Amino acid sequence: xxxxxxxxxxxxxxxxxxxxxxxxxxxxxxxxxxxxxxxxxxxxxxxxxxxxxxxxxxxxxxxxxxxxxxxxxxxxxxxxxxxxxxxxxxxxxxxxxxxxxxxxxxxxxxxxxxxxxxxxxxxxxxxxxxxxxxxxxxxxxxxxxxxxxxxxxxxxxxxxxxxxxxxxxxxxxxxxxxxxxxxxxxxxxxxxxxxxxxxxxxxxxxxxxxxxxxxxxxxxxxxxxxxxxxxxxxxxxxxxxxxxxxxxxxxxxxxxxxxxxxxxxxxxxxxxxxxxxxxxxxxxxxxxxxx
Amino acid sequence: xxxxxxxxxxxxxxxxxxxxxxxxxxxxxxxxxxxxxxxxxxxxxxxxxxxxxxxxxxxxxxxxxxxxxxxxxxxxxxxxxxxxxxxxxxxxxxxxxxxxxxxxxxxxxxxxxxxxxxxxxxxxxxxxxxxxxxxxxxxxxxxxxxxxxxxxxxxxxxxxx
Lengths: 291, 161
Ligand SMILES: [Fe+2]
Ligand SMILES: [Fe+2]
Prior knowledge:
The complex is a heterodimer. Chain A is mostly helical. Chain A is built from 16 helices and no strands.
């Protein structure tokens, strides 16, 4: 490793990462573009036999229980909705990333995907309470991707969980993001942003990843989505789907109230809905793993 | 010998020698842990929300989801497995965490703890030990024979409750 500091090692790790599979890239480019049709989505997916199989399998699964077998992609996509299809694509094409344990966070295999999926479902539910119109499907995708930086940074945190937790308890740092920063000179939001730029994700998705713990620092026109994902992330952590040592070690940005109008009762309802949806689709997307 | 896993809104009870009951990672959810030392019956209820009034339909499907309907369910299941309803019942609470500096709305954990204590109070029970609130996640388990309850948290290790 020579004279490289942690930040440089992280950068090198990002540089070595594979490019984003084309099919995921295309599906993601649809998420902030209203000007596409079902045909476009079918065209992208049918090029990938393995993904086609996964989509059809989910559409025919117990969670959706179609009355007659779903045999065409177009019917499957209409049934599942584009957000689920994008979710299946991300879950299966990036399963090596999402299904790994995050050892630096003392987080076991499966938790990273569960956290991402639950954040996505919650963000979509929260989008219903946004003061300005937020596209639920977009909130879902953004929720799914918000923590990708953890997959790279985790290795550099191995053995430090206890120390970072102590920093937090003694008030040396304000939250886990600052703890990561103190230790490594970077944090999972910044690293996630670098990954998203490398992958060439749509700009708004890159910004969601970058600012998800500091939504107030995002450009004004993006803040509605940012606060939606920020709260979705919180709901997932509260629901017990965190990623180990950093769970609940973040602050909620109170200015969400300028963008999202949700009270106790409605939050309880969101909790219940998120739990139901999570139960329904967790196993289905899981079983679409290619591994 | 088995380890029974308790998911969100579920309740599991056992009287089998060697069994363990374990609640999946708790955030704002609260585990109500019950142990009858005389008959060796143990149970964990994993409540997610304080009150069933937000969705009455759900009560029949998932009474364990809410504090007010979950506690009676736990007691019914304990009785079915051999708790005689009269001898000592040790109750412990774990979970109910929240995010840092949480406001009232997002402090579901605190609302769950208060609701759990209240629901226990109405059946004349009181937690003997609690490991609640704060801002980290927990896993709890109980050994059916010994009644020993272990709490663990990533980055914090594990301890007895
Ligand atoms: Fe994060
Ligand atoms: Fe997160």
